[in-house]
Amino acid sequence: MFRSLALCLAFLATPALAEAPAHEAFGAARSPAPGEARVYGSYAKGCHAGGVQLAADGPGWAAMRLSRDRRWAHPALADFVARLAARARAAGLGGLLIGDMGQPRGGPMKSGHRSHQTGLDVDIWLRPLSEKRPDATAREALSSWDVVQGRATLFEGLWRRSSARAIPLAAQDPAVARIFVHPVIKRALCAETAGTARPWMSKIRPWWGHDAHFHVRLACPAGSPECVDQAPPPAGEGCGAALDWWFTDEPYSGSSSPRKDLTMADLPPACRAVVDAN
Ligand SMILES: [Zn+2]
User: Fold this and answer.
1) How much distance in Å is there from the Cα of 120 to the middle of ligand 1?
2) Is the CATH number 3.30.1380.10 carried by domain 21-248+269-276?
3) Where are the domains of the chain?
């Protein structure tokens, strides 16, 4: 009896029996889950059915890194990209280079983002789309523009010509819940629009790792009762003392905790059906 108990315990402790990371199944899905567009769960623990693939090219935008196959989204996000590109053009700004959205069925990814799981997140490069559209090779090889020097300074020349000009337009879109930007970019936008009414400014959130792109996050769309919104950003423009913290050492001094792979058990139960659906 003792022996079988010991065997049992050894069996339970075998790492191979731990549930597989959910990114394996979601990363293997090459097509969207059939059915109506529907979001399950939250931005960093979720998935979606009925996704669409953003066109590689559209009026005023070009999708980058096509080989990654991460330009899948809820239709509301593909619509948003087209809308923002049109507004940017109407405002005399350059075209947009579109980075990662998500996987065909959303879900956790093997590398890169913690969020981008529900088809509602998109990274937009700060490097603008030039007159000549990049070919497929250039879409793999080109890099975005890192407009931030050190932690607290903008490369002014790049900044002025960058797609950051489109951030206020994106923030004014009612579908948008939040936009993550480098703190220096938030500070510059605060300064440039000082003295104007800017109720949209609270949506622009300083965050680590956004020196070469801005990250737009839509609110839960209609028709997805299982979609979990993030709490709204704090009231106020976030241009004052809250921003000062980002220019201290504190945000950069902590050690980041190692990333734990999510398993299916961490996701809403509907995500198992989403990833298994034929
Ligand atoms: Zn992102």
Assistant:
1) 10
2) yes
3) 21-248+269-276
- What does the H/E/C string look like for 117-152? CCCCEEEEECCCECCCCCCHHHHHHCCCCCCEECCC
38 CB-near residues (< 8 Å, 6+ apart): 48, 49, 50, 223, 224, 226, 227
Nearby residues for ligand 1 (ion, Cβ within 5 Å): 123, 215
What is residue 18's predicted lDDT score, i.e. its pLDDT? 66
pLDDT in tens, 136-187: 999 999 999 999 999 899 999 999 999 999 999 999 999 999 999 999 999 9
Q: What is the pTM of this model?
A: 0.92
Centre of ligand 1 to C-alpha 221, Å, is: 19
The parts of the chain modelled with pLDDT lower than 50 are 1-14, 16
What gap in Å lies between CA 208 and CA 251, rounded to an integer?
A: 9
